[in-house]
Write a structure and sequence with these properties.
The chain is mostly helical. It has helices at 47-80, 84-108, 113-140, 145-166, 181-198, 205-220, 241-251, 256-292; strands at residues 9-17, 28-34, 39-44, 175-177, 224-226. The strands form 2 sheets. Strands 1-2-3 form a 3-stranded antiparallel sheet, covered by helices on one side. Strand 2 and strand 3 (39-44) form a beta hairpin. Helix 4 (145-166) packs parallel to helix 6 (205-220).
């Protein structure tokens, strides 16, 4: 019997030997006790190694997710201490953890509803609360109630997007519906590093406010945005996201602050432009397809 997805192995006991005079480490029939309450039987030669491998496959995505939560908490501490640049990098590292935990879970075949909910809760902190506190302290602290509205508006947009993602009936293996919140969080926080490295200032608060409104709208939109699966070898050259990500990473070597902000920032309107161009092409192709189809002949009334 095959283990169901998301099932952990709690205990392994030997039932009997498959061959006579078998040594303790030889092939045998073992009973596997799953966390779902079911009992599985499997012929294995190294049940201890199989149990360890299964435990690693089950725990690896969760460890990445919880490490992302730790980085988000650390970013909050850095922001309250006034170490804004370090807080930006902590948010970026948390976004990387969010990118790879799902990829690792899909590669190991251990996707579970618990992991999906945990990932969304971590995103609410890492891509919602942490960036909101950072931009409020840097840009909106002097705006009074208006600044509070902008900071809370960012958290609200992230929460609505995550709720919509969790309640979606089906998911595409290549595209997100709307810009994912970790990408949006990287854009709005990398703006600080871009301005300090390029102009020597923190940047204008009204530009950050425009980013909050624009990115919030893109998160709640239906514009498709590429998933991390497009970075895999099979899909790397089929979509522009793979080569573009490579160029951004190469640009980070001489210009880390400018490349990350420009690369992630351009990808958001780029996704909207590609989506709009595809819809326009589809609308233009629809009349020609209708013309090429034979028109049905009207039925003649019986005489």
């Amino acid at each position: 019997m095959t283990l169901r997805s998301g099932t952990r192995l709690n205990r392994v006991t030997r039932v009997g030997e498959c061959t006579q005079n078998a040594s303790p480490g030889s092939t045998g029939l073992f009973r596997l006790w799953g966390s779902d309450g079911r009992i599985y039987r499997r012929v294995m030669s190294n049940p201890t190694g199989t149990l360890r491998a299964h435990l690693f496959a089950t725990l690896a995505p969760g460890v990445l997710t919880m490490f992302g939560l730790f980085l988000a908490f650390w970013s909050l501490i850095l922001t309250t201490d006034g170490r804004y640049e370090a807080a930006v990098w902590a948010i970026f590292a948390a976004a990387l953890c969010d990118t790879f935990d799902g990829t690792v879970a899909r590669a190991l075949g251990v996707i579970s509803p618990l992991g999906r909910q945990l990932d969304s809760l971590v995103d609410l902190v890492a891509a919602g609360v942490a960036p909101a506190l950072l931009i409020y302290r840097v840009y909106f602290d002097d705006w009074g109630l208006v600044g509070i509205v902008f900071g809370f508006g960012w958290i609200a947009a992230v929460a609505i997007r995550l709720a919509r993602f969790n309640t979606a009936s089906g998911s595409d293996s290549v595209f997100f519906v709307g810009v994912p919140c970790p990408i949006a969080a990287c854009v709005v926080t990398q703006f600080l590093l871009f301005c300090r490295a390029t102009f020597g200032t923190d940047g204008a608060p009204w530009i950050c406010a425009a980013l909050v409104v624009g990115l919030g709208a893109m998160m709640l939109s239906k514009v498709p945005y590429w998933k991390s699966t497009t970075l895999m070898p099979k899909l790397y050259f089929h979509y522009v996201y793979g080569p573009a990500t490579t160029l951004v990473l190469l640009g980070c070597i001489p210009f880390p602050h400018q490349s990350l902000f420009i690369g992630t920032g351009v990808s958001v309107p780029g996704a909207a432009i590609i989506h709009a161009s595809r819809r326009a092409l589809a609308r233009r192709a629809l009349p020609s397809q209708l013309k090429s189809q034979p028109h049905p002949q009207p039925e003649q009334a019986p005489s």
